[in-house]
Amino acid sequence: MAVVTLFMSDRDTSKTFTSKKEADEYDKMLELAEAVSYFVEQNVEGLDEQQIENIGLLFAYQKDKLALALKGKTEALFNTQPENES
User: Fold this and answer.
1) pTM of the model
2) Which of 52, 48, 55, 11 is nearest to 30 (CA)?
3) How confident is the model at residue 13 (pLDDT cuts 50, 70, 90)?
4) Cα–Cα distance between 84 and 58 in angstroms, integer?
């Protein structure tokens, strides 16, 4: 009988991973999403809680493309395909 070690996300206990690195990266992404959501909530009026959360997750999932755009390579945002959550 094989033993498989699984690592659970600290921020989303429904997610498990086969490596600690993957679990830590996922937690880090969720922390970024939370921070972005807070920033949007404080600076944009008229959004409901779900919209704010969706924006936070979108920015966290697409952080590399956003970083490129902020450095002047705006074409990175025009080549963005929706990503499915794993």
Assistant:
1) 0.79
2) 11
3) confident
4) 11
